[in-house]
Amino acid sequence: MNLDGSAQDPEKREYSSVCVGREDDIKKSERMTAVVHDREVVIFYHKGEYHAMDIRCYHSGGPLHLGDIEDFDGRPCIVCPWHKYKITLATGEGLYQSINPKDPSAKPKWCSKGIKQR
User: Fold this and answer.
1) Which CDD domains match (predicted)?
2) pLDDT digit string (tens) for 12-45?
């Protein structure tokens, strides 16, 4: 709630910084879970970069912190262990492999589903 009593849009709420752990520990383990502003998140350290997202997959609630990180078309992704959904670490985009059925020589390519993991 805002000071005037009106409801606040959770997407537009401003948050303060939160310490989730020691940098050395995160780098060593390459992933960790934390609760940040009442949200369960997973923090990944992959190839020198940090990434964070909701701990549960947008599709069916699979535990992303237990998934493997794999590259798809040069994009590192977390693969949900339940249904193998691929989510890019950098943007949270869900990816799928597409092919043009009218072109017999077409090669499959990775495309965005238009859905993002928070």
Assistant:
1) Rieske
2) 667 788 889 999 999 999 999 999 999 999 999 9
How many beta carbons lie within 10 A of that of residue 26, not counting itself?
17
| Residue 75, C-beta contacts closer than 8 angstroms, at least 6 positions apart | 88, 89, 90, 95, 110
Position 49: which residue type?
E
Domain-located, residue 52: yes
86-88 sheet: strands from edge to edge: 68-72, 75-79, 86-88, 93-98, 109-116
Buried-exposed string 43-81: b where 16+ CB fall within 10 A, e elsewhere: bbbeeeeebbbbbbbbbeebebbebeeeeeeebbbbbbe
Q: Is 115 exposed, middle or buried (0-12, 13-18, 19+ CB in 10 A)?
A: middle
Range of the structural domain that residue 38 is part of: 21-115
pTM equals 0.82
In a domain, 7, yes or no: no
